[in-house]
Design brief:
alpha+beta, 3-stranded antiparallel β-sheet
């Protein structure tokens, strides 16, 4: 399972904001956030976990990083949309917190979608530029849709 697939699974299970998940998303989509000025970037980024007592990320093998270096994308729709604009520039997004009927399923809760400028079901090769998600919060929904789009790009 790829890192993107693991993150998608975690987002689908999440129930709300999660600072460790924010850091894992940053490590996957914006690894430059882990680079310290004046030091050579370390790639791949070492495994890490959230040390709640310190309010920081602890790296396997040593090292600590304050969580304010990572946008709170799981807590804020604004931060999640800003991430969309950084990692998928020009893509369109939609978020709804209302109940929504989707094909033969009734979903009570947040929904989000993203699509590229080229998205068009009628044009061969562009029918797959649309991704959506129904997850616990609007921010988690848009993040899940973004990661699905990035996974599709990685697989293409």
């Amino acid at each position: 399972m790829s890192k993107l697939e693991e993150l998608i699974a975690e987002l689908e299970k999440a129930t709300g904001p999660d600072r460790e998940l924010d850091a894992r998303i940053a490590a996957t989509l914006e690894p430059h956030r882990f680079d310290a000025p004046g030091f050579t970037p370390i790639r791949p980024i070492p495994n890490f976990w959230l040390d709640k007592s310190e309010g920081a990320i602890r790296f396997e093998g040593g090292g600590l990083m304050d969580t304010r270096f990572f946008p709170a994308v799981t807590a804020s729709v604004d931060a999640a949309v800003a991430l969309v604009n950084r990692v998928l520039p020009g893509w369109h997004w939609t978020i709804s917190n209302n109940n929504r009927r989707f094909t033969d399923q009734e979903w009570k809760g947040p929904w989000a979608s993203i699509s590229s400028d080229e998205f068009n079901n009628d044009v061969p090769g562009h029918e797959d530029d649309y991704f959506d998600a129904f997850v616990a919060t609007p921010a988690l929904s848009i993040l899940t849709a973004v990661l699905r789009a990035k996974l599709a790009q990685e697989e293409a």
